[in-house]
Each structure stands twice: as structure tokens, then as C-alpha cells.
Amino acid sequence: MEKLKMHWPDRVDANIERIAELFPTRVTENRDESGEDARAAPA
After folding, report:
1. How deeply is 27 buried, as exposed, middle or buried, from its count of CB atoms within 10 A (0-12, 13-18, 19+)?
2. How far apart are CA 43 and CA 37, in angstroms?
3. DSSP letter assigned to residue 2
4. What is the pLDDT along the chain (43 residues), one digit of tens a residue?
């Protein structure tokens, strides 16, 4: 019997991109703890 993989793709980045398309003024760009550029959509 083959075991099923219980793993779903992380869709956060895709969701933030979609929010940026719909509401471009609501998405901010910051730097995360490691100094990388990061996008965020405030709650």
C-alpha cells in the first residue's frame, strides 16, 4: 500500500501577490530578520 503525502503547497506568497493586484496600496515592502526584501499585507 502506498502512503499518501500529507503536504500542501504554501500559498501565502501567491495570496499576497493577488492582494497586491487587487489593492496595490495595501501591500507594504519591508526587510525581514535576515535582511531579505519581504512583502506583507496588513490584517
Report:
1. middle
2. 19
3. P
4. 888 888 888 888 888 889 889 998 888 888 888 888 888 777 7
